Amino acid sequence: MEKKLKSYETLFVIDADLSEEDTKAVVEKFTALISQHGEIEECNEWGKRKFAYPIDYKTEGYYVLVTFKSEPDFPSELERIFNITDTILRSIVIAKEEKTA
């Protein structure tokens, strides 16, 4: 039976206090995880941005937006891994609407 891939996007915010190498390692870790379980369509690193309000006493973070396709059970696992990773301050995974012609 063919597996049905759905479109998703995730935005995650990495602690800006990390060094440049550590930040790149976190980005590579999550892009590798996503590509293992699906296919990445686009990865945009927005860089450091100031928060509107402090999060865990931090005032800025490193933003990364990834658009990908995967099986429907993977996004919940991705959210779980985001939640147990100390260097991720905030994250969200959103299912994108499929375009119908």
Describe the structure.
- This protein has 101 residues and is an alpha+beta fold.
- It has one domain: Ribosomal protein S6/Translation elongation factor EF1B (Alpha-Beta Plaits).
- Helices cover 29% and strands 49% of the residues.
- It is built from 2 helices and 4 strands; from the N terminus they run βαββαβ.
- The protein has helices spanning 20-37, 74-84; strands at residues 6-15, 38-55, 58-70, 88-95.
- Strands 2-3-1-4 form a 4-stranded antiparallel β-sheet, with helices on one face.
- Strand 2 (38-55) and strand 3 form a beta hairpin.
- The longest helix is centred in the first third of the chain and has 18 residues, at 20-37.
- The protein is elongated, with a radius of gyration of 14 Å.
- The model has no long low-confidence stretch (mean pLDDT 92).
Question: Which short descriptors sum up this protein?
Answer:
101 residues; Alpha-Beta Plaits; elongated; alpha+beta; single chain
Q: Whole-Å distance between the termini?
A: 25 Å
Parts with pLDDT < 50 across at least 5 consecutive residues? none
CATH architecture classification: 2-Layer Sandwich
Class derived from helix and strand content: alpha+beta
Major sheet:
4 strands, antiparallel
CATH homologous superfamily, by name? Ribosomal protein S6/Translation elongation factor EF1B
Shape call: elongated
Strand order of the largest sheet: 2-3-1-4
**Helix-strand pattern, N to C?**
EHEEHE
Give me the number of helical elements: 2
Q: At the first level of CATH, what is the class?
A: Alpha Beta
Rg for CA atoms: 14 Å
Average pLDDT reading: 92
Q: How many structural domains are formed by the residues?
A: 1
- The helicity comes to 25-40%
CATH topology heading = Alpha-Beta Plaits
Name the beta content range: over 45%
Q: How many strands?
A: 4
